[in-house]
Design a protein that fits this description.
Length: about 190
């Protein structure tokens, strides 16, 4: 049975698009269906992109709401979709314990650094400012900490030729787009 997946975004959604493509015609085709794309920001570019692939989209605005209140609204909204997994793709919000308990071991995130070396926001800026030759991408389960959940996989990003922040991000995202779907496939296969 294909896993029923919702992707949560806050912005451009380039990772989201790569996952949708793979679920419709790539390595995730036999493994999952993207049922819904949800943004906490009205202006997220990814909403339009998801629609263009025929995916249902919705926006639940988080601004001005207390974390717990927003997350309960999210839990109640998502219930009817009977989701197997929640995939975070540039969703720039910390989830409360209520949400994490509801989808225990079924929330997956991508972080643009090795989570043992750098947690939180600004990972590409950190790699650039420290003139790193390479960095890493981590795909992990989400627990109640920030980027502390069980690691599913890490992949190296070569930065030797990336001499600007824009290039660091470009190199990183190129790896993210391929690696995220590979790691999702690994999880879905293992739990099929
Ligand atoms: C990606 O680089 C992702 O790894 C990062 O935000 C970007 C979203 O890009 N996520 C985090 O930093 C989470 N803490 P996208 O919207 O184009 O996929």
């Amino acid at each position: 049975m294909k896993k029923r997946v919702a992707i949560l975004i806050s912005g451009h959604g380039t990772n989201m698009e790569a996952i949708i493509k793979n679920s419709q015609n790539g390595i995730l085709k036999d493994h999952c269906e993207v049922i819904l794309v949800l943004s906490n920001k009205k202006k997220a570019k990814g909403l339009k992109i998801a629609k263009s692939y025929g995916i249902e989209t919705t926006c639940i605005i988080s601004k001005g709401k207390k974390r717990k209140k927003f997350d309960i609204e999210l839990i109640n909204f998502l219930e009817k979709y009977k989701l197997d997994y929640i995939v975070l793709a540039g969703f720039m919000r910390i989830l409360s314990s209520e949400f994490i308990k509801t989808y225990k071991n079924r929330i997956i995130n991508i972080h643009p650094a090795d989570t043992d070396k750098f947690k939180g926001l600004g990972a590409y800026e950190w790699a650039y400012e420290n003139k790193l030759d390479s960095t890493a991408i981590t795909v992990h389960f989400v627990d109640s900490g920030v980027d502390t959940g069980k690691v599913i996989g890490k992949r190296k990003v070569n930065l030797q030729k990336a001499d600007t922040l824009v290039k660091v991000k470009e190199q990183g995202l190129k790896v993210e787009h391929k690696f995220y779907s590979e790691m999702l496939k690994k999880v879905f296969e293992k739990n099929s």
